[in-house]
Design goal:
about 280 residues, alpha/beta, Rossmann fold, 9 helices, 9 strands
Length: about 280
Amino acid sequence: MTIRKGCQIVVFGNEKGGSGKSTTAMHVAVSLMKEGLQVGTVDLDARQGTFTRFIENRCRYVEETGIELTLPHHRFIETSAEMNKEDAMEEEEAQLVEVLSELSEMCDVIIIDSPGSASHLSHVGHSYAHTLVTPMNDSFIDLDVLARVSSDHKKVEHFSHYASMVFEERKRKAARSGEQVDWIVLKNRLSFHKNVRNRREVDGILLQLSKLVGFRIVSGVGERVIYRELFPRGLTALDLEAGDHEKMNMSHVAAAREVRNLVRSIRIAKLSAAR
């Protein structure tokens, strides 16, 4: 199995739950489809399956309302039934490579949502990323996934498990294909009433880390109720702009603007000429 060159793979990864990976991945997927790109989506989290449920909700909404919505080519990786751990990992990895190969033939972009915990399959998925997006909340609890910080919140003491894993998988990708990974740390679910001093300290550590391990820092989406409310219908803030679903309020408008700014910052939209 080979993955077609020119098809870009975007992985959303963070070994901590609650960072908004699935919601952000879905909004990015819809944004790219609205740009006219063919988008494939892959869920590596067979246990939680939030990304898959989001898309299932979207399909059901289309069936129940008759409203036409853009839909990605979605796949999920099933957990291996093999009892031997090594055999199970090999089977799941082969399944992922087969799915990526299949989707790459029909898609401009493949978006992978990885689980909020460490797993062999998640590590393999990271190694295929052209762009890696790591959403995180602006707190030292979330920052702990990337680095251990001094007690005065001013200095990085050493890298944490996730940053070390990303480093290894970037090397793996470079050895396999000679390609580099554009790693983006996405400051996500930002509270509009957050302690200013705390945010400034977190930003300072992120800036240090970005220079040490090589990632870009991008502002993501805010902590808005609208994102949670849309999930049961499989809708995104961008779907509301068409005006077929409900009247937009100021929160909807702001959320849609956030998503468009996010996609521009990630720099995927330029792929419209990829095929």
